[in-house]
Design goal:
The protein is an all-alpha fold. The protein contains 13 helices and no strands. The two termini are 26 Å apart. This is Amino acid transporter transmembrane domain-containing protein.
């Protein structure tokens, strides 16, 4: 935790509050026009900013969010599976991480043939349950480890130069922003909920959001605090990589992470699949069907897998992508759309809250990628391709 105790926990709380508010805005705007639902982020932007301007101002960011998330999930899946098998079978320690990422990519190619979001309900539920379970394992294991080996722990920063401290702080901001990445697909998830004028979908959707964000707060704060307490400045970007004992429990937790990202990858990939297939059908006259789905989706999954094998720098990717693309879709674009559509009175609650969120989001978007790029460069110095 490069931000140390108070700034680190404070930034997690600020990000949680800001993105909770912007998610409420998206849920509310889903059906703000009578008789019409904005089932995609880009559709809502078209309405808020005007057709062409809205589409091109949001579509690139939304696609980048989803592609970036899938790349990071690919790396995470490979790292977690490797850690799991190393703990169970120490003789497998020399197997390259590239092979684990390749295996993860192969499974994603199979899962990618799922037709639509409705078909992913079971996978999404499994991913959510796994997320809660491995977070609690990480919290308990870190707490036990800290209680038994709490001597010589340093809570300063890793870098010993002013420049290094600044860049690590910027990377940490992007890492936190990455953690709140679900806004780009929330409208597409809401579109799967039945809606009538008497029972609009925003009511059950908001109940689900409240429950989900309560779980998010529990997981993020407990894992961040216990992990930093147990390991101090030596904690890994993924706390389960730092933990070693009990071996069987940490192995199970890493396998839970593997299952979590296995399902979550598809949630973020599905909108990209739809965009690719729609483009091929409309502009290149391909015939819709299983062959198109097999070729286009396999190509996308293979591309994200290849990138993940080339640059498996987990910490740097989180910081870079978190600032570059996630800050826009999760922190400030929903607020800009809200101001454009509803035009709240100046200095009213929603006007003030929206502008505060915009300022926080823009600062993260500008500063965090700098730290992420530096972290990737430092990691690349000692990295062998496909290691």
């Amino acid at each position: 935790m490069s931000l140390r105790w108070i700034p680190g926990i404070g930034m997690i709380i600020v990000s949680w509050v800001v993105t909770f508010y912007t998610l409420w805005q998206l849920v509310e705007m889903h059906e703000m026009v009578p008789g019409k639902r904005f089932d995609r982020y880009t559709e809502l932007a078209e309405h808020a900013f005007g057709s062409k301007a809205g589409y091109w101002s949001v579509m690139p960011q939304q696609m980048l969010v989803q592609v970036a998330t899938d790349i990071v999930y690919t790396v995470t899946g490979g790292k977690s599976l490797k850690k799991c098998l190393q703990l169970i079978f120490p003789a497998m320690a020399n197997i390259r991480q590239t092979y684990y990422i390749l295996f993860f990519t192969g499974l994603q190619i199979l899962l990618s043939q799922t037709p639509n979001f409705n078909s992913l309900k079971g996978v999404s539920l499994l991913a959510a349950v796994m997320s809660l379970c491995y977070s609690m394992v990480a919290f308990v294991a870190s707490t036990v480890r800290g209680a038994n080996h709490h001597h010589g722990i340093k809570y300063g920063v890793r870098s010993h130069t002013t420049a290094g401290m600044v860049f690590d702080t910027l990377n940490a901001l992007g890492t936190i922003a990455f953690a709140f990445a679900g806004h780009s697909v929330v409208l597409e998830i809401q579109a799967t909920i039945p809606s009538t004028p008497e029972k609009p979908s925003k009511k059950p959707m908001w109940k689900g959001v409240i429950f989900a964000y309560a779980i998010v707060a529990l997981c993020y704060l407990s894992v961040a605090a216990s992990g930093f307490w147990a390991f101090g400045s030596l904690v890994e970007d993924d706390i389960l990589i730092s933990l070693e004992k009990p071996r069987w429990l940490i192995a199970v937790a890493n396998f839970m992470v593997f299952l979590h990202v296995l399902g979550s990858y598809q949630v973020f990939a599905m909108p990209v699949f739809d965009l690719i297939e729609s483009c091929l059908v409309k502009h290149y006259k391909y015939k819709p069907g299983r062959p198109l789905r097999l070729i286009s989706r396999t190509a996308y999954v293979a591309l994200t897998g290849f990138i993940g094998m080339c640059i498996p720098f987990f910490g740097g990717l989180l910081g870079f992508f978190g600032g570059l693309v996630f800050a826009s879709t999760s922190y400030f674009i929903p607020c800009i759309m809200w101001l454009a559509v509803h035009r709240p009175r100046r200095w009213s609650f929603h006007w003030t809250a929206s502008w505060v969120s915009i300022i926080v989001g823009v600062l993260i978007a500008v500063l965090a990628p700098i730290g992420g790029v530096r972290q990737i460069i430092l990691s690349a110095k000692t990295y062998r391709m496909f290691s």
